[in-house]
Amino acid sequence: MLSAGTSKGCCVQRSCNGAKLAPQLKPVISRFAAPLRGPSPAHAGEASGSPIVSGPIAVNPSMSPALDPVAAASAPDPKSSKAVDRSKGLWTRCDKCGTILYIKHLKEHHHICFGCNYHLKMSSQERINHLVDAGTWRPLDETLSPVDPLDFTDLKLYTDRIKEAQEKTGLQDAVRTGTGLLHGIPVALGVMDFSYMGGSMGSVVGEKLTRLIEYATQEGMPVIIVCTSGGARMQEGIFSLMQMAKISAALHVHQNCANLLYIAILTSPTTGGVTASFGMLGDVIIAEPQAIIGFAGRRVIEQTLQEQLPDDFQTAEYLLEHGLLDLVVPRSFLKGALYEIIDFYRAAPFKRRGSIPFGVQHGTFLTTEEKVRRRWAQWSRSGLPAGGSNGSSGQLAVASDAGAVSYRELVSSFRTLVEGGGSNGSSSAPLELQELLGDPEALPAALELAAQSKLEWMQRTQQLLAGGQAEEAAQGQGQQYVFRMQ
User: Fold this and answer.
1) Minimal CB count within 10 Å: which of 150, 183, 260, 324?
2) Where on the tree of life does the source sit, at the highest rank (predicted)?
C-alpha cells in the first residue's frame, strides 16, 4: 500500500508538472526560432506558480534578456569610448617556426620569437618607443599627406588606397620623423612603417626624410633611419623615383660637407629603391638578424640568370659575409649598440669640423611662426640678443642658440627687401635690430614674407677659391654668405 501510494503520489506530481510545463514548450522552442516577444520563459514560470523555472536564469530579474555571446563580445562597452578591436586578439603565430606566442609577452620581448629568435615585424611607434628615451620624442612634419598627381587607377583609385591605409594605420604616410634622446644623446630619427602600403616610398616619404636630414644638418645632430620598405611607390611614378636623388643629395651635404654621422638600420624587408638609395649610404649600416635585404626579388633574379640561388641569399648574414653590411645586431641590443657608436663618434679625438656650403629655408609653418613670435617678443623685452647689432646681411653671425640663426635670416631677408639691397644682400645703411623691433608693422610683414618665399644662402665662392691669406682673413672675419630670395 505504501509503495502503491508512493507511486501514485509520484505519478500525480509528474502529471501536474507535465501539465504545467506543456504550455511552456512552445515559447522555449520559439526562442531559438525567432526573437521572443513578451515575458521571458523564466518570468513565465514564476507567473504560473510552478516551482520549476525554464529558460536562462538571470541574477537580476530586472535585467534584459541575454544576448548572443559573439554579439555581446563584439559590442562596444558603453563605459569605454573606444570600440573593441577583435582583429588583434591575444595570440599570434611565429612566421618561421609556427610557435604560438602570447602577444603581451611578445611585445615585452621586442617581437622576438621565444622558440627560434626570429624577429617579427614591429610598428613604427613600437620602434620609436624602443629606441628613444621616454618622454623625449618630438615629431616633425606630422601633417604632410600624399596626393594623387597622376590620377592613378589600378583595381581601385589611388586616393582610396591612401584613405584605407591611413584609417588602418593612423599614419599620414609610411614614415615617422622626429627628434629625441637616445640615452641622453640628441638624435634625428626616421622610422618607416611596412603596414602602410608596404612601406613604399612616395613623395611624402622623400620630403619628410629630406626635411629631417636638413634639420639635423643645421642642428648638428646624427641621423638614424630605420628602413623597411618594398621600394618606390608605383602609383606615383617618376615622382617616387625622384625621392632617391633628393634624399641622397641631402645626405651628401650631411655626411661629406658637415661631417655628421648617418646610421642606416635595415629591417625585414628592405628592397627596391630604398636599398638603392639611402638604405646603403650610411656611415654605419646595421641590419637585424635574418632580415631580407635586396633590390630585385629572389624569383626575378633566378628567372633572369637561370640559376639556383643559395638558400640564405639576400639575408642579413649573407650580405654581412660579402661586405655589404657593417653589423648584424639583435633587436634587444640595438639601442645599446647605437649609443656606443654615437658616443664613440662624439668623443673621437681626430675629427674634422665640417661646414654647410649652402642652405635652404622654405616657407614657415604654424609651429615655426609661433617660434618666431616668441623670439620676437623675447627680443622686444630684453633688447638686443647676444652679439649686439644685427650687422650687415652679408655676414651671418652664429649665435649660441642654433635656432636663433633662422630668425636672423628672417630679419636679414626682410631688411633686404625693404631697403632694396643688392643680390648679395649688402645695403648702404644697415638696419639695426632695435629699430626693426620698434616698428609695429615689421613682424607681420616679415612673417608674410617668410611664408610666401624661399630663402637660399651660399658661401662666397671667391673666398673658397682664393686660399692662402685670403682664406685666413675670411676665417678671422667670419663666414660670408650670399642671400637670394624666391
Assistant:
1) 150
2) Eukaryota
